[in-house]
Specification:
The structure is a single chain. This protein is α+β, with helices and mostly antiparallel strands and 251 residues long. The protein has 2 domains: 3-108 and 236-242, no CATH class; 121-213, Gcn5-related N-acetyltransferase (GNAT) (Aminopeptidase), CATH 3.40.630. It has helices spanning 3-12, 17-21, 62-72, 83-94, 192-206, 220-228, and strands at 26-29, 47-52, 55-60, 98-108, 121-126, 151-159, 162-171, 176-183, 210-214, 232-242. Strands 1-3-2-10-4-9-8-7-6-5 form a 10-stranded mixed sheet. Strand 7 and strand 8 form a beta hairpin.
């Protein structure tokens, strides 16, 4: 298992790095530890669950963690996020005014790969240069303008002075940066997403950070971009929201 990922998940799930690689499910009361991933971090963290390394990790408020321990101590990770299991969990969450927010697969990349950019002008944006895209709906996945996980780098494919696609990375933690991608609908399925994600992946690896990529369970095209850019599946994660909460961006 990747050492950076192992250390990061231990921080995020309030456990030891050994808990990440053993074969037991773990249930930990949540504490907001320094260096945690903070993408769209909420004021109250009720419960989150991760399936990784063939088992499950739970962290959250004390009462819900005890309920999870009673109900899922021996649960298997492989099929845990199936709808029938989520129905039971959601019913329990609703008693405290919460609901399942999102369940997403996540991918990491550990190696650089070659990429052909011959057909496009490539433009890079860093830090304050990204501000010009605030509020631009064309790039709502590439740049999220999240206060707790700032956008730090972006790369665009340009032709005839028109941006055809943009990939951006947010600094979710000091060592793990998450990539998002937008491609102009008129030029989809031409490999632009794969090209840009690969470029950004290579850049992040060159900065000694671990790039990662999250998407929806049903977003097959996005999953293909991840795989085609040299990413591999690493974990799946469930987060909860207070009932009535709305999110502006898919994770």
């Amino acid at each position: 298992m990747n050492d950076i990922l192992r250390g990061q998940l231990a921080i995020d799930y309030c456990c030891s790095s050994f808990d990440i690689i053993d074969k037991e499910n773990h249930f930990k009361e949540y504490r907001p530890l320094e260096l945690r991933r903070r993408f769209h971090e909420k004021d109250e963290m009720f419960l989150k669950i991760i399936a990784v390394n063939g088992k499950l990790l739970f962290t959250g408020q004390k009462d819900i963690i005890e309920w999870c321990r009673d109900n899922y101590a021996d649960a298997k990770s492989e099929w845990f996020f199936e709808a029938k299991n989520m129905h039971k969990l959601n019913e329990r969450l609703s008693q405290d005014g919460f609901q399942i927010g999102m369940v997403h697969p996540f991918y990491i990349a550990e190696n650089k790969s070659e990429v052909d950019t011959a057909d496009y002008e490539i433009r890079w944006y860093r830090d304050s240069e990204i501000e010009q895209f605030r509020g631009d709906p064309r790039f709502d996945e590439a740049f999220t303008f999240c206060e707790t996980a700032p956008d730090v780098i972006g790369v665009a494919a340009v032709k005839d002075d028109k941006i055809l696609g943009m990939a951006g990375a947010s600094m979710d933690s000091p060592v793990m940066w998450q990539i998002g991608i937008n491609v102009d609908p008129e030029v989809k399925a031409k490999g632009i997403g794969k090209m840009l994600v690969t470029l950004l992946k290579n850049e992040i690896l060159g900065m000694n950070r671990l790039p990662y990529y999250g998407t929806s369970m049903s977003h097959i095209a996005s999953q293909k971009v991840a795989l085609g850019s040299g990413f591999v599946p690493a974990w799946a994660e469930l987060v909860t929201d207070r009932i009535g909460y709305t999110e502006n961006r898919n994770g």
